[in-house]
Write a structure and sequence with these properties.
With 324 residues, the protein is an alpha+beta fold. Helix content is 36%, strand content 9%. It contains ten helices and eight strands. The chain has helices at 42-54, 81-101, 146-157, 159-166, 172-175, 222-238, 256-260, 269-278, 291-311, 315-321; strands at 59-64, 72-76, 123-125, 128-129, 132-133, 185-189, 195-198, 211-213. Strands 3-8-7-6 form a four-stranded mixed beta sheet, with helices on one face. Strands 1-2 form a two-stranded antiparallel sheet. The protein has a two-stranded antiparallel ribbon with strand order 4-5. The two termini are 30 Å apart.
Length: 324
Amino acid sequence: MDSAEGEWNSGRDEGAYGGGNLGYKPRYKEGYFPVPPHDTLQDIRSEIVLALMNAGVQVEVHHHEVATAGQNEIDMKFSPLVRMADNVMTYKYMVKNIARKHGKVATFMPKPIFADNASGMHCHQSLWKAGKNLFYDPRGYALTSELCRWYIGGLLKHAHALMAFCAPTTNSYRRLVPGYEAPVNLAMSQRNRSAAARIPMYSDSPAAKRVEFRCPDPSANAYLAFAAMLMAGLDGIANKTDPGDPLDKNIYDLPPEEAKRIEKVPGSLEESLRALEKDHAFLMRGDVFTKDVIDTWLEYKWKREVDPVRLRPHPWEFYLYFDI
């Protein structure tokens, strides 16, 4: 993999990219919100946004993201669940094709580059009834209602099983590690980016109150992941599940004893699949998911992804062990 924006190309003769090395390479973890000429992809993103809008997909913002080598973000406006999953499919199709038109390749692989931030798919969720946002309460924590907190409780309670749909690849767990803004802590917070359930504070508007579940990544099947998250949240509401105290601290400054008490997301796809094997009754209420869907998903993931990756030597193993 290579990129004209890659920090590793800071000293390279880049005639192939058009006119030699012009510098302005975003360093590792320093690509958040540069402007042109540092950001060389502004015009391509704008073209993608216009194409999405012409296809009926509403877009809110776009910008360069943290990682070197051309990480980008385009945020879509909320829609009902199935429509939003449709929009994800349209989004990925248009991004890939417009990138190809410009001689580039777009990937939605969660962690394509070592030692830099990975790509998540932060899913903002709220429940509405008769035009009213049920997640808003002006007297609640971060302006959230009790119902919202129960919904978050359901997400956190079933998070290990949810990851089998929301972070469904072996590569997903290269992303879910501390130190890269990754949401590895199963807690809620109104600001903390490493908390799995974050309550955005951009606006005090009742319509804007929501929970941002940060664990999913774009390798997920949006239809399955969105439905699974909704079922977990509804289970939390039905059982009035307490999400625990908010984690409004800098987690990296916590004493080791306190940090150990915070539950973490699974560390591998294997762990997530085992969790789904044990915890899936909440998904099957109302026949939203059926046993054959869950069984087929599990069988495919074990036989076609986990086992093949586990059985093959990794390049880093050659570095560590070849000369033993």
